[in-house]
Amino acid sequence: GYIDRDGIDRAKILLEVERPLPTVNDLVDFWRLGKVKDDDLKKYIRWRGYREEFVEAYYASRLRMPSVSEMITAVVKEALDPLAFKELLRRQGLIELDKYQQELGLPGIAATGLATVEETLGKPRGPVTWADILWEAHWRLPPLERVVEFANRASVGMIHVAGKQVTLKEEEAAKAVLLYSRLHDFKPVPRAHTVLVGGRAEEIRMPVSDAEMMEATRFRILTRIESRFVRRWGLISEEDFKRLLVAQGVSPYVKIRTVDGQEISMVDALMKAEFLQDLLEERTHLRNSILAAFQRGYNVKISVLDPFSGKEVALETLKIEEALKAIRFRSEEAGWLAQSARIRRVVELRNDAVRGAVEDFLAGAASVGELEDALKALIDDEEVRRSVVEYAIKRRALARYRRMANRLDRALISEASTMLRLYEQGFAPRSEAEAKLQSLVDKGLMLPEEKDALLSISDERRKRELRELAVRALAKKLSRGEISVKDFIASAEKIGVDKEFVEGLLENYATMHTLTVGQLVSYADEVPIPSDLLERKLDALRVPDDERAIIREVVRRRPIRDDISSLVYWMTSLASSLDILPEDVSMLKEVGLTDNELKIRRKIVEMLNRKAVRARIRAALETLLREQYQAQAKGRDPGLITLDQFVKAMKALKYPEEYVIARAQEIVASAANVKLKDFEDLKAKIVSGRWAA
């Protein structure tokens, strides 16, 4: 009945409807594999019975989103815009945090101080989303070792960023290390765990947290080599040295046994070894000295301080093995060194004896047989002994030949040298010198090449001798004034003297007359001295700077010295008549007087002015007194001045009292025509003030 009259197979339709469809996720996977086309994908989603808006949503979900880590990598590589990254995460459901908090009832999610993506790009802060948290969490942390280095260097001001110094206080540096220890997943609180100790459970609590442990160990301790340096200079005690070794990881509990059977801890053994290492160079010097003394048979008795026992140990160099053991050489070392020293001692003794026997033979004090007998007692190997004898015989023959050859050579050389010198100095012709050398060639005592070389050298020496004679003759003419310097130079170059040597000859033979500084200064009275000439003279004579200043001032002032003296005398004369005042002295500065000189002249003018004023006042007082008493003598009183006023005024001018009274006595007596017999009483009357004309 499922086939209708129109021929439609409804059963087939119902069968197709009942066939199960793939899920949307399966359809999306089929699409990604290329098994389903875009249009078919939408159609199949519709067949699933979804509304059209959901069909579009499911269709959009076919687009795969990169993972968060992939997107962060793309942002870091600058392949994805950070704001696009934030939007992509928001579309994956990682929306604003405040909506999470509102819908889920959560407390604050983001940490305080979190920098958003916008802020890291220098833009205004936007709403905080999960993208901001993931963005902040993706930043790489610097290694803790670099953080520790930064904190240590910044705490002492040894960090510069962009040319500016960055400094952290110690507590700030410690907090920085603690912070990064936590960021590196070190636990910020002390650990407490139960562990099995000796078969039973025991709770162990750490005194500090893991983060504090990292901060506390940011400063390293001295290394082994640094500890050795500190110990070498005596800057650390034994106990602190042991503590350093323990801190470096050396066990203080493990015991070891020394060569001599003592049992000590590993720390003590290493400490003593380090101390001995410091003395290694000194011990080597002492060992070499002991061996050298032993080889020469010297028994030197000394005492050295044992660095471990702290006691003095006596040594004798002839008791070599005991001495070496005392300075910490092991028994086998001491034995080998002692035997080596004994061998060297025998070798040195026999070497000296062999050398003496050979020298006696070479000097003719012993025959060949005596040499052989002497060597038999010294050299055990016959081949070596025979070789020494043969060597000595050859040396003796060679020495004799050399002595004879030297005597002959000296005689021949002296003869040839004398003849060549005579030729060079003009006392023998060249033919005689050549004949003498040819005779030596004929006797086989000289090679022809040697003869030619000697003659060539003598020819050049003869030319030089002639030039020297000519130059000395020219120099004498120059010194006598027969020729000029120009003629001397031309003549010297004409005879073959180089220009450089001519200048040297002039320096040697021609005396240059130059003025001394004193002469140059004295000439300044007659002619002006150019400043550049004076400076060149001072430079040539290397005059010190302080003396240069004096000489320059003398040269400047010397030509006008008399004019300055006249001007000063004229001003002094005018000052006596009050025509020149102290302030007028400043005009002398224009002629070169110094401030001190002006100060002295100003004082002189002030004194002369005061003297002139004082003299004029005194003259006026004397005139008034004279006219007063002349008028009184004629019977009238003009009232010009009294005798008491005159005396007081004169005293005010700083005249001595005796002088004032004597002067008043003289004026009054002259004006009043006092007789000689009354003149004696006049002084008493003036003093008492009882005088009246």
Portion in beta strands: 5-15%
Which structural class best describes the helix and strand composition?
Answer: mainly alpha
Pick out the low-confidence regions: none
Total number of strands: 8
| Oligomeric state of the chains present here | single chain
Spatial strand order of the main sheet: 1-2
Global mean pLDDT: 79
Fold and architecture overview:
With 693 residues, the chain is mainly alpha-helical. Among the domains are: 51 residues, no CATH class; 102 residues, no CATH class; 93 residues, no CATH class; 78 residues, no CATH class. The protein is built from 32 helices and 8 strands. The chain has a two-stranded antiparallel sheet. A two-stranded antiparallel sheet has the order 3-4. A two-stranded antiparallel sheet has the order 5-6. The protein starts with 9 loop residues before the first helix and ends in a 5-residue tail after the last helix.
Keywords:
mainly alpha; extended; 693 residues; two-stranded antiparallel ribbon
Short recap of the structure:
The chain has 693 residues and is mainly α. The termini are far apart.
What's the arrangement of secondary structure elements?
Blueprint: H1 10-18, H2 24-32, H3 38-47, H4 52-60, H5 68-76, H6 82-91, H7 97-104, H8 117-120, H9 130-138, H10 144-154, E1 159-161, E2 164-166, H11 170-183, E3 190-197, E4 200-209, H12 210-216, H13 224-232, H14 238-247, E5 255-257, E6 263-265, H15 266-278, H16 280-295, E7 301-305, E8 312-316, H17 320-326, H18 331-362, H19 368-376, H20 382-424, H21 430-442, H22 448-480, H23 485-494, H24 499-509, H25 517-522, H26 531-540, H27 545-557, H28 561-576, H29 595-633, H30 643-652, H31 657-672, H32 676-688
Antiparallel strand pairs: 1-2, 3-4, 5-6, 7-8
